[in-house]
Recover the amino acids of this structure.
């Protein structure tokens, strides 16, 4: 996604229309699983998850797009939410090893060309026993759904997304254990939970 204030505003307007219809319920379901206190939200975007931050959370919100990050910061500030906002890339996290109790992302790994690198970084910064929670587009299971996904992938690539990732497989390859998946929309959108 382009790094501009216009793109951030357009994305925010689009998502504020779409999010309440379906995605907000998925976000709520994801955040109901979070184990505090020290939480990293990687790929915070324009702050669509800030309404789920709780007062006992020590949130660090990271994004590589400065304009998205600023919109997220403004949303948190206007809601009285305390969080630390950091400019950075999930594939090269600016945090020491064993920092966070939980790492949360929503629709981040479908945008990365190298999701394994980002997942290894999240594992590095999680404390032993730390929790990984992902809300993701994934490669659907089954021949027909897989074919439809493969045929539509070039369209998604135009938006910067890589919808056909087998993210659950990458999570295992990154060294996470106790992986569970919670299907939300067929097998295309799921919550992935795992442990360091």
């Amino acid at each position: 996604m382009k790094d501009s204030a216009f793109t951030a505003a357009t994305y925010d307007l689009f998502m504020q229309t779409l999010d309440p219809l379906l995605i907000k319920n998925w976000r709520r379901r994801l955040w109901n699983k979070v184990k505090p206190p020290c939480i990293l939200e990687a790929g915070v975007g324009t702050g669509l998850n800030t309404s789920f931050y709780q007062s006992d959370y020590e949130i660090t919100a990271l994004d590589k797009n400065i304009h998205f990050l600023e919109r997220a910061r403004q949303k948190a500030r206007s809601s009285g939410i305390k969080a630390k906002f950091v400019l950075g890339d999930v594939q090269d996290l600016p945090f020491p090893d064993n920092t966070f109790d939980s790492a949360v992302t929503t629709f981040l790994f479908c945008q990365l060309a190298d999701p394994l690198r980002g997942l290894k970084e999240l594992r590095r910064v999680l404390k032993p026993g730390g929790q990984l929670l992902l809300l993701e587009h994934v490669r659907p299971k089954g021949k027909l759904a897989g074919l439809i996904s493969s045929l539509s992938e070039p369209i998604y690539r135009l938006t910067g997304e890589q919808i056909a990732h087998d993210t659950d497989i990458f999570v295992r390859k990154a060294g996470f254990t106790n992986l569970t998946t919670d299907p939300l929309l067929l097998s295309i959108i799921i919550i992935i939970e795992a442990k360091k």
About this structure: The chain has a mean pLDDT of 85. The first strand starts at residue 38 and ends at 42.
